[in-house]
Amino acid sequence: MKKRALKVRIVGGGLAGVEAAHLLASRGVGVDLFEMRPARFTPAHKTGLLGELVCSNSLKGTDPETAHGLLKKEMQALGSLVIETALKTRVPAGKALAVDREAFAENLTRRIESNELISLIREEVEDIDPEIPTIIASGPLTSDRLAARLSEMTGSSRLFFYDAISPIIDAGSIDYGHAFFGSRWAPENTDYLNCPLDRDRYESFVHELIEADRVKARDFEDARFFDACLPIEVIAGRGIESLRFGPMRPVGIHDPKNGRLPYAVVQLRRENLKGDAYNMVGFQTRLTIPEQKRIFSMIPALRSAAILRYGSIHRNTFLDSPRIIKDDLSMRGYPNVYVAGQIIGVEGYVESASTGLIAGLSVLARLGGRSFIPPSADTAMGALLQYITRFPGDRFQPSNINFGIMEEPEAPKRNRKQVRLEKESVSFDRWMKSLSLSD
Q: Is 199 exposed, middle or buried (0-12, 13-18, 19+ CB in 10 A)?
């Protein structure tokens, strides 16, 4: 029998739900973690593992002088299980933190299942009891019944946008005579496999992408895309050169056969530790399966490629958070109900996980009879939280962490980066001390 202290319900076993459950349990709070898989799957998930990554296997950069790096640093200071597990299961990807998806999800699942204060309940949640402390972290693929309940509680209609998944290629089917290893600016690096195209092949490729058959939206779905995750064919439609300035940009990549930059290049990144599968970097798509077979075979290195997983498209749901959610991630009118993860309008694995940490800390404060004080907007977590809850415009759109949403320091332009980093460090340390989580 698992020990029980105060009990909190968490709905959803994705990254945000796992982080919230782990944080609360590590502080002596009992958790019921609900996950509907494998009894019921979403259109994108394939396993019943917690924290399954369905789009890319990359958690983006680790450089502490970037916004993504700062966010990871802050999460590590809070004891992030997601970052800890990602570092244990990472695969080579230059400065990016990419993971072996299966090993990552298996490790997360084991950690949660072995925690005596967490009960993992494999069933779908269709209703929410507003009297029980609850964190909704059901993700962008929230079931229709739960989404309807959230819509009823918030008085807001659901919003839709599309997310797309990149194809995965069998490493043994790649023509390595038309490819070469090397990372941008680092030819000795073998983390990426580069598939070059000359001008004629590139322009033919773009033309076919634009004309290709695509999966059509259903009548009730609003086909809007998140700008940082555009399907490859949508980018192609913005102009003949758009892909060369996007995911197919050749900058910093020199072909060892001639020492020159290719006209355009498709990069492949290891999908797992064994290296027997590669992800097409930035090639999320909503092309039909026959069109994916036909068009991607136009890339010389992939002319006979076996596609292990085709790119796909699915509906994502998110709330109008600035008008629904308070600074502590509780729902307006429902002080015991908190929301975290992509459903609140953050984009990206690490961003979603970070809001699970914030929601966990908020619930912890409430259970202790304290008010939750959020981190300031000159920190990465604080900036993300402020964007979600205080976005001033009428058309709220999901965002990932970036310096554009962080508080701008008052300093000359040449010193701004250093001042920003110093302010973030001081502000985050001060916030940590206010939580009594640091020495």
A: exposed
pLDDT, mean over the chain = 89
Domains, the chain: 7-156+319-434 (3.50.50.60), 164-315 (2.40.30.260)
Q: Alpha-carbon torsion 67, 70, 76, 77, what sign?
A: negative
- Mean pLDDT of the region 139-150: 84
Of the candidates 281, 267, 287, the residue with the CA atom closest to the CA atom of residue 210: 287
Q: What's the pLDDT tens digit per position in 118-139?
A: 999 999 998 999 999 999 999 8
Q: Could you tell me the pTM of the whole model?
A: 0.76
**Is residue 81 within 8 Å of residue 22, measured between CB atoms?**
yes
- pLDDT for 197-241, tens place per residue? 999 999 999 999 999 998 776 443 455 666 667 899 999 999 999
Q: For residue 134, what are the contacts with CB-CB under 8 A and spacing of at least 6?
A: 8, 9, 10, 11, 128, 336, 337, 338
Task: Name the β-bridge partners of 350.
Answer: none
